[in-house]
Amino acid sequence: MPQYFGKLPTTEQPWNSLQSVQTVKELENHIYFNCGSQTLVINAVAPNLIRVRMSPTGALSPPRSWAVTQEENWPSVALTVQQHPDSTEIITDRMRVAIAHHPCRLTCFDPHDQPFAQDIEPGISWRQGAVANWKKIETDEHFYGFGERTGLLDQRSQVRTNWTTDALDYDILTDEMYQAIPFFMALRPGVGYGIFFNTTFWSQFDLGASQPGVWSMETRGGELDYYIIYGPEPAEILATYTQLTGRMPMPPKWALGYHQCRWSYESETEVRELAQAFRDRRIPCDVIHLDIDYMRGYRVFTWSPKRFPDAAQLIADLRENGFKTVTIIDPGVKYEPEGDCPVFDEGSDRDYFVRNPDGSTFHGYVWPDKAVFPDFLNPDVRQWWGDWHKTLTDIGVAGIWNDMNEPAIENRPFGDDGHKIWFPLEALQGPPEERATHLEVHNLYGYQMAQSCYQGLRRHRPNQRSFVLTRSGFAGIQRWSSVWMGDNQSLWEHLEMSLPMLCNMGLSGVAFVGCDIGGFAGNATAELFARWMQVGMLYPLMRAHSALNTARHEPWVFGDRVERICREYIELRYQLLPYLYSLFWEAATTGTPILRPLLYHFPNDPQTYHVQDQVMLGPSLMAAPVYRPGVQCRAVYLPSGVWYNWWTGEQHQGPGYILADAPLERMPMFVPAGAIVPMGPVMQYADEHPLDCLTVRVWPVLGLETLHKTFVLYEDDGQSFDYETGSRGITTYTLQQSARELVFNISARTGSWTPPPREVVIEVLGLGEERFMDDGGDRQFRFLL
């Protein structure tokens, strides 16, 4: 009872529910349902994609979605509208949407007449300042995605809020995070669908936490607007969702290598010593990140004249030694009206900083102390901010790391006892003709900072790919940036949590993701760091990072044994680059995640719905990492089929569990029968030398009657945008196996890009190998069983 705990009783404002349909009108694939003062509109965007909008006032807002690509570019959908006395049905060749009239309720059906996304009491409802929708949780239904989320892989029975927040010291109970991506997919055997809640306002999903068997979505925007995507499997749901919100561009190949970071490598001398240590110890590394201390007093787009007196020469020397340099940028611009600071002076003169509702310039406190903040909702500001990156790229900076962009602000100088704030919710942002309150666009701040950065880098280096990293973002952030999971901790629990976090990001359309290896805050033990480096080898973004006043987290600081383990797994990462790069191409063209939970490939195996401590790296590698100290073996679930131990070649039959050896030197890894994995030699950095030997490893199944598998190898120059106009090489490998022989086919390479001269080695486990010089032609090899 609330009075026992000092709380006053509250009475919630009642919800108003959508009532009976009075008239129905069809207009160009839009079906309008008049419910008195309210309007419900159903739009078939694609055969498996339905948009639902409801306005409590009857007047729909003009379109201004920042996440969705233009719907008018989608081909027209063939649909049938059937009117019944008490309902209306909208039918495409992939799904059926039934609208009951009394009261107005929506239910979707798959081609087998199985219901999904079914409205349940009170259906679509609204009250002052909010609109919501309640739907039924079907038996054995599970929920994934939701962007950046802590805890378990399956989010059922959780409340998930979409409001970008500096989630410092987050843990498994944290709700609001750095990213706000109001998208999820629901899965049960035979049925899968996705929901994209098309609102930038504060929003929330309740997945049966308040009422078992019911999930709901609520927004503080003025109308309901969401998309229903029918699968039935995760791959098709994601393909449609990323067609709707955009897909990632190809990153430079070096960005797939190992990244080393710390807050901070404080001087040019320290950075040079770090780089030389990697090369002397023969530990591959491509990227060194510079945190805030490279700047002059934390002023953006500056360099410290004492710690980095000749940044251009440093970056050139690093580049000569095979390293790329990535610098951090924060949105806070130091307030110094008489400080001869061009960024501040230009922004002030052009009225480019966020203002309070009373017209005064908003200020808060971040690293440079009192600071003002660009209004990234304004395209002129985004152009201006993007152009400022030229000061960095002109001296050779290869990538930008966008931080503190939720935005993270305090009301007092850092170091004082202040508290976090954000812009006033009534503050107006954007160009004069399209003003929006911060209440509507808060979740877009980091997203549009990353957009500004990406587009600026593209303008300044029109045919050289750059690397962009962001902490905060919104749905569609994959179009502009990679993402890391913010300030994690050097705890075994955070190592364990990293893979479900990254898998749910991948299931939210964001494929290029990573967590800080070793943990950002705190001190990793030698054992924890070794296990984390093994897991980090799987991350699409492989970056180690550590915080100020913590122990160093470079691969050699924990002793010779851990250094050998780190070297081995970083080397394996570089050997897998041909395979990984092909997965990035798949993500860029279809929206497929790079790191995948088992349910992605086995959606009709309910056992995989809760497996969060095993992952698939693409279709051909499964890893079962160790997440606890002292563990020397662990249970591993193998889905249906034959699986091989990556290290020993031992064969296992799924489905079922096995006990896998896992000494500190070994992360259990498995490959399914028919797996095709192209690999290269160990390099100290991604483009140390041309790929002169490509090894294609193949795992057959002895005694299996038939088997048919394919893998598409993607290649390009790794650095330019020429791939967009056809300068790429695509080779399809096909494995066909009967009871007596295995036939391995190599298709003729397509595309105008040609690799340098190289030998190709086809290794078929247990059956031998074939070698040839690659001329791009088609070939066939036969192996007798």
UniProtKB/TrEMBL annotation:
<dbReference type="InterPro" id="IPR033403">
    <property type="entry name" value="DUF5110"/>
</dbReference>
<keyword id="KW-0378">Hydrolase</keyword>
<keyword id="KW-0326">Glycosidase</keyword>
<feature type="domain" description="DUF5110">
    <location>
        <begin position="694"/>
        <end position="766"/>
    </location>
</feature>
<feature type="domain" description="Glycoside hydrolase family 31 N-terminal">
    <location>
        <begin position="40"/>
        <end position="206"/>
    </location>
</feature>
<dbReference type="InterPro" id="IPR000322">
    <property type="entry name" value="Glyco_hydro_31_TIM"/>
</dbReference>
<dbReference type="InterPro" id="IPR013780">
    <property type="entry name" value="Glyco_hydro_b"/>
</dbReference>
<dbReference type="InterPro" id="IPR017853">
    <property type="entry name" value="GH"/>
</dbReference>
<feature type="domain" description="Glycosyl hydrolase family 31 C-terminal">
    <location>
        <begin position="591"/>
        <end position="677"/>
    </location>
</feature>
<dbReference type="Pfam" id="PF21365">
    <property type="entry name" value="Glyco_hydro_31_3rd"/>
</dbReference>
<dbReference type="InterPro" id="IPR025887">
    <property type="entry name" value="Glyco_hydro_31_N_dom"/>
</dbReference>
<feature type="domain" description="Glycoside hydrolase family 31 TIM barrel">
    <location>
        <begin position="249"/>
        <end position="583"/>
    </location>
</feature>
<dbReference type="Pfam" id="PF17137">
    <property type="entry name" value="DUF5110"/>
</dbReference>
<dbReference type="InterPro" id="IPR030458">
    <property type="entry name" value="Glyco_hydro_31_AS"/>
</dbReference>
<dbReference type="Pfam" id="PF13802">
    <property type="entry name" value="Gal_mutarotas_2"/>
</dbReference>
<comment type="similarity">
    <text>Belongs to the glycosyl hydrolase 31 family.</text>
</comment>
<dbReference type="GO" id="GO:0016787">
    <property type="term" value="F:hydrolase activity"/>
</dbReference>
<dbReference type="InterPro" id="IPR048395">
    <property type="entry name" value="Glyco_hydro_31_C"/>
</dbReference>
<dbReference type="InterPro" id="IPR011013">
    <property type="entry name" value="Gal_mutarotase_sf_dom"/>
</dbReference>
<protein>
    <submittedName>
        <fullName>Glycoside hydrolase family 31 protein</fullName>
    </submittedName>
</protein>
<dbReference type="Pfam" id="PF01055">
    <property type="entry name" value="Glyco_hydro_31_2nd"/>
</dbReference>
